Amino acid sequence: MLKVLAFITTCFFFIGVTNAQTINQNRKKLDVIRVDSPPKIDGKLDDAAWKNVSAAKDFVMMRPDNGKPEPDTHKTEVKLVYDDNAIYISAKMYDPEPSKIPAEFTNRDNIGNSDFFLITINPNDDGQNPFEFLVTSSGAQADSKVSNGNEDFNWSAVWESDISINDDSWVVEMKIPYRALRFANVPVQSWGINYHRKVLNLNAQFTWNHIDNQQGNWTQYDGLYENFTNIKPPTRLNFYPYASATVTTSDGNTDFDWSVGMDVKYGITENFTLDATLIPDFSQVGFDNVTLNLGPFEQQFTEQRQFFTEGTELFSKGNLFYSRRIGSRPIDQFSNERKNDDEFINGKKVNDKVIDVPEKVQMLNAIKISGRTKGGLGVGFFNAITEKTEATVERTEQTINRLDTISNISTYKTTVNPFSNYNIMVLDQQFNQNSSITLINTNVTRDGRFRDANVTGLLWHVEDKKSRYNIDGSFKMSNISDDEKNPNTGYTFDTSIGKQSGNWRGEIGYNFENKDYNPNDMGILFSNNEQTIYGFVGYRLLKPKGIFNNYGVNLYYNINFLHNPGTYTGTNGGLSFWADTKNRFSFGGNLNYRTEEKDFFEPRVGSTSGIYFKRPEQLNINHWGSSDYRKKLALDYDFWYTFHRETISDINQISYGFGIRPRYRFNNQFSLIYGLNYNKYENQFGYVNNDDYAIYFGQRDWTSYNNSLTGKYTFNTKSAVSLSFRHNWSKVPYQNQFYSLDQTNGELTQSSYQGDHDKNFNSWNLDVNYQWQFAPGSQLIAFYRNSIFGSNSHAKHGFFKNLDRLFNEKHQHTFSVRLVYFIDYNNIKNIF
Questions:
Q1: Other Cβ atoms within 10 Å of 456 Cβ, number
Q2: For the CA atoms of 28, 34, 40, 46, what is the dihedral angle to 10 degrees?
Q3: What stretch of H or E contains 509?
Q4: Where are the beta strands (DSSP E) in 387-450?
C-alpha cells in the first residue's frame, strides 16, 4: 500500500500542466503601471497616480443576456497601478440616476440590496484559484478565496476601500496589500485579473473580460495584466490576539469564565500559509438548528467556528472532513466503561448511571498549512488536539442478605473522550485550468485503548480542454484499529462521465460503499453497504427568451441496491424545473417518484442482517418561489405534498408542509426576516423499540413548527447589531396500537407491545450580537443568548399550552464580550 501511495504522490509532480487559455481565446490584456506616489484611498479620483493610465473598459454582460455589450448609460472604466507594497484600483461606474442606486448598509461579507464592484486576482493565472475583493455601493467590503468556481466568503483579508457618489456615477477606490495575496518571487510577472460590476436596477452583471456562462468555469475567463516588475512577497505574519469574558446564568446559578488566546497567520513561503489558533475560544458561535431526530442516523450541523470555515477548501476534498467531530459534545461512542444494566461485582448488585457529561470537548490548539505552487500543486496539512474529557458516574452497590438490603452510593470519573489527535494531509494537482487529481488522508489517534482510525482517498476530476465533457470519481479506503464492533478495512468507489457545457447536459455514474467502509471518526457518512446506478439529463437556457431570463429542466433516475448481498432495494427518479423571469420572480418545482423500498436501516439491526422495513410507493410534489428583493417587502415560500400507498389496510398515510418567509426592509439600515415552517406526517410508521423476540414499530402523527426571526440594524459599514431567533417545536403522539416487524418480508403486524413513546420536543434560542470594527481587522463583539431546551412526553398540548410549559423549563442566559486586535508584523517592523 505504501508503495502505491508513493507512486501516486510522485505522479503529481509529472502531470503535464498547461496554462494555455483553451476556452479564453480573446482575453483582454493591459500593461500594468508602477507609481512612485500611491493614491489616497478616499473615493476621489483626483490623485496624480490615476493620470495617463490606460483604463479597462468596454464591459460585456455576463447575465442575463450573456455576451451583450454594456449600455451607453452604464459605462465602466477601471484603472490599476502598483508600487512596492500593494496594488491600487479605481473604478468609475456611470449611471444616469446615481441617487437611485440601491445601497443597503450591511456588515462585512454581506452584499444585501446593493450594486457592487468586484475584482478577481489570480497571480498564478491558473484559471482556478483567484482571490475576490468586493465593494458595495454603500461601502461595505466582502472578500473570498475561490477554488474551481466555489467562493469561500469565510476567508478574510485586511485591505482598504472607499466610495463616493457623484452626479453621473459612483466611484470605488481600493488598496490591496501584497500580504493579502499569494504570488511567486520572480522579477517579472503577469496576473490574471477580471472586473465585475453588478447593476441591480438593470438586473444585470457585467465583466471586463467576457465570460461565456455555458462553457467551463467563470474563473477561466480572466483578462491579463502584464509586467509586474520587481515586486517581492512581504513577510506575511499577522497576529490576532483576543480576550473574552463570559457570564452564564442557569437555574439560579451564575458562572464566570474568561479566556485569552491568539490566532496566527504566517506565510511560510510566498505560496504557503500557516494558520494556528492557540487556546481557541468559540463562545460566540451561533446556535445549532437542533431538531427532533427519530431516524436511524445522526443529525448533521453546519460549522460556525471561523477557524474551521476559513481556507478549508483543500481539506474538504472527498467529503472526508466533518469538522464538528473536533471539540463537539462528547458522545462516549468509543468507551467501554459506561454501564446501563445491573450486574454483579464481587457478590454485590451494581448499577452505574452517568449523571454529568461535559457540554463539549476542549480543543487545545489547531493548525493549518495550505497553499498552491505555481505549477498547480496544492498541499494541505491540518492538525488539531483535544484534551481528555471525563464524565461523572453514580454507582449504586447493593448488598443483599437474609434480613436486609444495604445500599451504598458513590461516584467516580470515566473517560468519555480521550486525549485525541486529528490529522489531514492533502496533495491536489490541478492542470489544464479545469482538472485535478487529489490524494487525501485523514487520521485520528486516541490515547489508551480507544479506537484509532485512518481514511485514504484518491479523487479525480478530468475535463477535456474545451470543458465540454468530464470524468469524475474517487476511491477511498478506511481502516479502524482497536474496535471489536467493526472489521478493520472498508472501501468505497464512485465514477461518472458527463457533458457539462451547452444547453443539453447529462451524467451517468455508479457508486458503492461496502459494509465495512466507515469514515465517521473524522468525516460523516449516514449509511454504508449500498450501491447505486445514477444519472440525469437536463436542458437549460441561460439567455432571455419570452418572459424568462433563464430556465432549466432536469430529469434524474437512481437504481439502488445493497452492496452485500446485492439485494435490490428500490428505484427513485424525478423531474425538476427552475426559472427566473424578467420581472425578477424566481420559482421552481419538483416531481419525485419512489417505488416500494426495502429500508435496511430503520430496524436498527444492521444492513447485513437481512431484516428490512418495507416502505410504500410514494409520489412527492413541491414548489418554491421568491419575489423581487429590490422591493421593501419581498416573500419566499414553498410547499410540498406526498402521496403514499397504504402500508396497512385501512390506514392512509398523509404528509405535507409549507414554509413562508416574508422580509421587510424599512430603510437601508434596518431590515427583518420572519420565517414559519410547518410539516405534518399523519399515520407515519417508525421504529420504537426491540427486544430478544421482536422489533417494534409505532403508528404516529408527527407535527413540527419552526418559527424564526432575523434582523439587523447597521449604524454604518463598521458597526451593526443583529438579532437571530428560532423556536423549533415537534410533537409526536403515538396511537395505542403498536406493531411487530415481520423479519422475513418487512411488513407490520399488530402486536400486544405497549409503551410510552410520545415525544414533545422544544428548542428555543435568541441571540443578539453587536459588532464594531474599530480598526482594520480588529473587532469588539458583545453577545447575548437566551436558550431553553425541553423534551418530554406531553405530545397532546396545543401551541400556547406548550409555550407555557416551555417557559417553566430551565433558562440559560449567556453574555459575552470579546476583543480581537489585528497586528501586522510589517507595521511593527516599520515602527522600530
A1: 22
A2: -70
A3: strand 504-513
A4: 389-400, 405-417, 420-431, 435-446
Rounded CA separation 582/546 (Å): 9
Do 264 and 236 form a contact (C-beta atoms < 8 A)? Answer: no
Cα separation, 574 vs 25, in Å, equals 39
Range with the poorest average pLDDT among 79-83, 206-210, 283-287, 347-351: 347-351
User: Nearest-CA neighbor of 234 among 180, 179, 289?
Assistant: 179
Q: What is d(CA 118, CA 105) in angstroms, rounded to the nearest whole number?
A: 17
**DSSP-derived 3-state class of residue 298:** coil
How high is the pLDDT of residue 450?
A: 86
Euclidean distance between CA atoms 329 and 448, whole angstroms: 20
Nearest CA among 309, 321, 313 for reference residue 523: 321
φ, ψ of residue 239 in degrees (nearest 5):
-115, 140
Sorting pLDDT into bands at 50, 70 and 90, what band is 173? very high
Residues facing 257 on adjacent strands: 246
93 Cα distance to chain centroid? 34
Cα(422)–Cα(324) distance, rounded to whole angstroms?
A: 12
341: CB partners within 8 A, 6+ apart: 351
The grid coordinates of residue 516 equal: 465495512
Which cell numbers in the block locate residue 787?
Answer: 436558550
Residue with cell 452505574: 352
201 membership: H or E segment, kind and range = none
Residue count of the chain: 832
Query: For residue 467, is it left (φ>0), alpha (ψ between -120 and 50) or beta?
Result: left
Least confident of 341-345, 364-368, 427-431, 723-727: 341-345
The three three-digit cell numbers of residue 373, written as one number = 505552487
Q: By the 8 A CB rule, do 589 and 574 touch?
A: no
Q: From CA 47, how far away is CA 439, in angstroms rounded?
A: 50
